[in-house]
Amino acid sequence: MPKESKNAEEADEVEDAEDEGVEESKAPTEEAEPIEEVEEAEIAETVTEEETTEELEEEVEETEEAEEAEVEEKVEKPEKKEVEEEIVEERLYTIPLSRAWISPRRKRAPRAIRLIESFVERHMKLRGEGLEEEDAEARRLVISNEVNERVWSRGIEKPPRKIRVRVTEDKEGKVTVYLAEGD
Q1: Are 174 and 123 contained in the same domain?
Q2: pLDDT (tens digit, 9 = 90+) per residue, 45-62?
């Protein structure tokens, strides 16, 4: 008999669960009717969305045009900066760096940079007997990153044998060494 009482208790629990399940199943059916009403409202909204999609497309086109105009303005700004520099003098040089190969292997690239500096100072008259000390101090030499990367491109032991550069001097006396175009 104890087994039967356990089975009876389990049967009661199952019936209770089924009753609860019925109540739960009734709840979604009650909610189903409002869902249909929401769908009707969504359909009404889609009609208005079709009308507004044209407006949105126009706004997107306007923003794209505005972005393109901003990009064009950004492109023009760097060109203006280059013009503002006012280059007084510009020269092209092929600088021989073969003397850098005389030094030990691990000191060749730094020596090549020093050779470029001394060559430019000598040819652009940055330092020398003919210049006053104040004038020589006012002039500065700047080697661009492109030139430095070209010298160091094959490592410290194998700098190039020669390098072609473009040297410019602006109205303030600043001398800048750039890599020549095409190199």
Answers
A1: yes
A2: 555 556 567 777 777 777
